[in-house]
Amino acid sequence: MPDYSGKRKAAEHRSPSPGPSQPRMTRSRSVGTSVSFTQLDFQTNSDTAASAFFGNAARTAQVAEKKARELEEQFQAIKTKLNDVKRAQGGQDRRVREAAEMLEEERREWAEERREWAEQVRRLREEGEEKEILIKQAADTLAAQAARLRRNP
């Protein structure tokens, strides 16, 4: 009785098994090569199967080694760039430090000049006060002499 459910049986999905003239192919996932089972002669020669297995393992190891070398090269390139950036940063840090030292030296010089000017202003004020006292004494003396001269002409 035919099946009208629309479902196909599993046997209908499969392609027919290849004959002796058409070897079945298998694909190695890790390496990407196709190997014929009849080429490997799995049924009669276990050494060939082991040889193919170890051949695939060797190719996989070669691919892994190549990838490791590429990653090592990338790592070295990144490491070199990092060292360049550190050197540049160190140079910038040194220039900033030198500029800060120069500014600090200028600040010290300006502070010293301000102290010198403050000292000079203080001395000039003291001299001015002394002269004012002398001028006042001279004015008082002259005023006293003028008063005596007016009384005793």
List how many beta strands DSSP finds: 2
In terms of quaternary structure, the protein is single chain
Strand content: under 5%
The main sheet comes to:
2 strands, antiparallel
**How many helices in DSSP terms?**
3
| Shape estimate | rod-shaped
Ranges where pLDDT stays below 50 over 5 or more residues in a row are none
**Count of all domains:** 1
Describe the structure.
The chain has one domain (24-151). With 153 residues, the protein is mainly α. The mean pLDDT is 79. The chain has helices at 10-13, 37-40, 46-151; strands at residues 25-27, 34-36. It contains 3 helices and 2 strands, in the order H-E-E-H-H.
Layout of secondary structure:
Blueprint: H1 10-13, E1 25-27, E2 34-36, H2 37-40, H3 46-151
Antiparallel strand pairs: 1-2
Region (Disordered): 1-33
Biased composition (Polar residues): 23-33
Coiled coil: 54-141
Task: Please describe the structure with a list of short key phrases separated by commas or semicolons.
153 residues; mainly alpha; two-stranded antiparallel ribbon; 3 helices; 75% helix; coiled coil
Quick recap of the structure?
Keywords: Coiled coil. The protein is mainly α. The protein contains three helices and two strands, in the order αββαα.
